[in-house]
Amino acid sequence: MISVDDALAQLFALVTPLVIEEIALKDATGRVLAKPVAALRDQPPFPASAMDGYAICSADYVAGQTLTIMGEAAAGSRYDGTVRAGQAVRIFTGAPVPRGADWVAIQENVDASGDQITIRETTETKSFVRAAGTDFKVGQTLDAPQILTPNLIALLASMNIAHVPVTRRPDIALISTGTELVMPGETPSDDQIIASNTFGLNAMLEQLGAIVRILPIAHDTLPALRTAFEMAKGADLIITIGGASVGDHDLVGGVAADLGMDQSFYKVAMRPGKPLMAGKLGDAMMIGLPGNPVSAMVCGTVFVMPVVRTMLGLGKHATPHQTASLKEDIPSNGPRAHYMRAAITDGKIAPFERQDSALLSVLAQANALLLRPPNDPARRAGDKVSFIPL
Ligand code: AMP
Ligand code: MG
Fold first, then answer.
1. How far is CA 234 from CA 210, 217, 281, 312, in A?
2. What are the residue ranges spanned by the domains of the chain?
3. Number of neighbouring beta carbons within 10 Å of residue 258
């Protein structure tokens, strides 16, 4: 049995980073930018008006001053002349500010009549001229790697980047094992249950940007498992769920070994999730998760998410921890790290009473995994503890 940190280090060592591909910006939501990208132009590319009003020389921005309107500048069509003392150009938001002008008197503060305007008020102290390149300059870069959020995509579009280099999405095959399992929506027999963590893990992986293949459930027989591994071919990561303990019906380790799996480790000193295994199966990485629903989801959070992030080029980092004060006293922990389902309310954390690894209803209520290190002594209310936000 190895520690959580050792298991994570061994998992990171198994990862083959994925290649980079160029995709259309429109399709890049949530993808990982793989290389820095440089702006192809200044934004704005010219001094631009931030308001509707009149472009003037700032020296003329004096209450009572009357100016002559020389022409108009709208977004997309500039006024080509030069604004001089005593002159104004009607201007609209986004239009280039004409040469000579360095001020926009907003229309709310101006009286207009025929081709004349009079500055009524000078309460505004801003020029309302956005200098060229004030947002960003040509050559300015967006750093990589990072996940492309909607705001970053807007910025890239503004930089005139139509295609972006991103890490290829990992192909992940999910194999659920168990003669007792049926898919949601099917009619289970009296002895069957619904495959649940399969869908929880699928959701977790899709959120990270993986292409997940939920394979048909493999019953606990050697041929069924072999067929499942056959169907998983081509995947970057094969994840099995269940069948990894030491019972008579736990066949995953044996079948994977027969198929040539080079095992890195089996069993991690943690609760829930002890019977975790990992290795390499041909070009694919394999992770065998325990079947108990909460164990599978906790191992997904603690191990699989960092592995997929590493595949995507986001670096080898454990799922981030935060700290909070305990709401109540808790007893000492045993020799395995314990990821307790917990609730944080008003900034204080408390584990749920029931910690059975089969209870998805408790996991669903939890907003944190309270982390108890191996042999952690009893803790008092108010003590600081680590947790993983959910
Ligand atoms: P196993 O690791 O196969 O011994 O499974 C441990 C427990 O988790 C058993 O009660 C299984 O029925 C249950 N289990 C295994 N796989 C799943 C799954 N995909 N969804 C829900 N429960 C499962
Ligand atoms: Mg099973």
1. 14, 18, 11, 17
2. 4-17+169-311, 22-43+138-167, 48-130, 322-389
3. 13
Question: How many separate helices (H) and strands (E) can be counted in the chain?
Answer: 8, 28
Ligand closest to the CA atom of residue 176: 1
List, as ranges, residues with CB under 5 A of the ion ligand 2.
178, 242-243, 291
pLDDT computed for residue 245 by the predictor: 87
On the question of pLDDT at 132 being above 90, the answer is: yes
For residue 242, the CA-to-ligand 1 centroid distance in Å is: 5
Counting ligand 1 atoms within 8 A of each CB, the residue from 241, 289, 299, 359 with the most, and so the one to mutate, is 241
CATH 3.40.309.10 for the 4-17+169-311 domain, yes or no: no
- pLDDT tens for residues 4-20? 999 999 999 999 999 99
Distance (Å) from CA 152 to ligand 2 centroid: 44
Query: How many angstroms separate the alpha carbon of residue 230 from the centre of ligand 1?
Result: 21
**pLDDT tens per residue, range 102-129:** 999 999 999 999 999 999 999 999 999 9
Alpha carbon dihedral 129, 130, 132, 136, in 10-degree steps, equals 170
Using CA positions, which residue lies closest to atom 17 of ligand 1? 291
The hierarchical CATH code for the domain 322-389 is 2.40.340.10
Q: Any residues with Cβ below 6 Å from ligand 1, and which?
A: 176, 178, 180-181, 193, 195-198, 241-245, 250, 290-293
pLDDT at residue number 330: 98
The ligand whose atoms approach the alpha carbon of 359 most closely is: 1
- Among candidate residues 216, 267, 198, 275, the one with its CA nearest the CA of residue 243: 275
How many angstroms separate the Cα of 162 from the Cα of each of 23, 24, 101, 143?
Answer: 9, 6, 34, 17
Give CATH for domain 48-130.
2.170.190.11
For ligand 1, mutation pick of 175, 177, 179, 181 (most atoms within 8 Å of CB): 181
- CATH architecture of the region 22-43+138-167: Alpha-Beta Complex (3.90)
How much of the chain, in percent, has pLDDT values that exceed 90? 98
